[in-house]
């Protein structure tokens, strides 16, 4: 979300809440041309207001912009910047204002600030997912690279009781987490806890299936939490190439980086003199399927 500006001059701000009481307070949430009534718990502050804006307008908000939250002040008959420490105590009207300066997504990757997410590469998907053999091969290459570079790996399996475990070709040795799920997004409470334990995580490299369902929903939740997301185009697919294509286009428009496995691995080593460069280079040379999958991006 955006930054909290400096508090306005004394006397300009609405009253602060004395204490966070029970119940909820009606709030009108305004963004662009939209205005939607909702409510927040009594005593809610900046973070809860931002979460509510995201839940109401997530599809319209460009997460790579800076924002100011403002509240309508009756005494001034206009919106003013939300002061630090503000708590909702009574019915009010707030708005989210994007600043004109856009934050550039640079897409820099370093092993120390990166986590790999491997999503639902399971046996029962094998006959249904287009180019599944190829994305298995690329996914295995990525996991080998992660082990070489000491990058944590988080793996999920969608309803493994019915859909089977991760395919045997993918070696999960050393994975930080391997979790079953029923939720489409990978962002389970255990995953969020694991991310919180890894110091300095800034970027997630995401691959698996299906592009338009679990990959898309995971990516959107991750950027909603302020993480940079790199989707590996040659390691993700769907049953339908149309679903895959439109999902990648939509995600790219939100600021998510759509890239390739070779670009990821070479960006992580960054220098021919890196001690693992030769091993990473051999990985790339050994497995580079020419399936036509990337022509479907």
UniProtKB/TrEMBL annotation:
Pfam families given in the database record: Isochorismatase
Domain of life: Eukaryota
Database matches in InterPro entries: Isochorismatase-like_dom (IPR000868), Isochorismatase-like_sf (IPR036380), Isochorismatase_domain (IPR050993)
Domain Isochorismatase-like: 114-262
Family from the record: Belongs to the isochorismatase family.
Name of the protein described by the UniProt record: Isochorismatase domain-containing protein 1
Organism: Centropus unirufus
